């Protein structure tokens, strides 16, 4: 099978690789670039664990082919804490016990990052709507929603 | 090569296929024309990629439409909304021109999947996929939209939504043909629209969905025209012409909508599955018919 060159930016760093057309963006990130922070749950677009940002918009990396991300600006969970310091959202999620096993957390964090970029002071209903496509089997979601609201509050009081 | 060694391992799920990413519509139509029915167009991939991963689809080649600028236009010339097939659902959802010229489309978009699905999913992809439970096909029917298609062999043609959805996940599009534009006719003053659905969880495919239009005679206040389209009750989205006829000339009162809902229920033989029996779907269809027609009438009064 033909290989395709993929050049893109991941967390601000230009990256490249050579892939078969059928390689998903999720597998490209994890296997070819070694960015295993992006988790794969269902691998057919139901669970949301593999959510990343593509040109600022949330996208399920298992539902994108790597070739579709050529030239794109991709952000993954690794990009939230570039120097090993958790960002405000991660701190808030920590403080609200917004994860337990942590498997779904990368997807939630990226989806929430997109939400807060578009709507810095979301209502609880907006938070629940935005997170409706991410599945967590541990928390029951309450602590995740609280974490988002806490992060939004922290951002406002910080200004 | 590292990748080659991995072929056949569990880390790659879709079957192998070839891929091209044309820059122009002409080039895409050429590739599709040459490849015959072995090739599939790739729009946002939110339905096709899962089908590949589950190996329910095995195209020999994907033709990625994302690079074709001409398919991403959203045009409002002459007060008619024309949405390019590759306009992302999220983009259309945020566009004020969609809200003002096709409010029922704007209301339906947030019902599709989840934000991360809509930021990739496209208007044309959803329509061409023709899932009978999906929102946009039913909305296209109630809008009496025109779907513009193009092929290299036969050029451009405009397909009324009523003729577009021909069967279960099947459309009037030929294998070498692409949907290029959704054209929405402008609506007369005194027209109201509504869309609603019942799903197990928000973002799931609807068990039943309904889209309605009511146009009131601005002098008498009676219903001049009503339209009703349902999703999830058959192999394709359906219009309910008999129910619509019943409402023409009627007072837009609760009784008329209740009668219309009764009529709707008698005309359906919905499928049964794990999410709901045929009887349940019929019941929900009646409830949604009544609610959407009533809300559309209320909005029509406000718009008059």
Commentary on this structure:
The complex is a heterodimer of chains A (159) and B (304). Chain A has two domains: 78 residues, Beta-grasp domain (Ubiquitin-like (UB roll), Roll), CATH 3.10.20.30; 71 residues, [2Fe-2S]-binding domain (DNA polymerase, domain 1, Orthogonal Bundle). Chain A has a five-stranded mixed beta sheet with strand order 2-1-5-3-4, sandwiched between helices. The N and C termini of chain A lie far apart (53 Å). With 159 residues, chain A is of the alpha+beta class. Chain A is 34% helix and 17% strand. In chain B, 36% of the residues lie in helices and 23% in strands. The radius of gyration of chain B is 20 Å and the shape is globular. At the A-B interface, strand 2, helix 1, strand 4 and helix 3 of A face helix 1, helix 3 and helix 7 of B.
Features:
heterodimer, A: 159 residues, alpha+beta, Ubiquitin-like (UB roll), 5 strands, globular, B: 304 residues, Uridine Diphospho-n-acetylenolpyruvylglucosamine Reductase, domain 2, Uridine Diphospho-n-acetylenolpyruvylglucosamine Reductase, domain 3
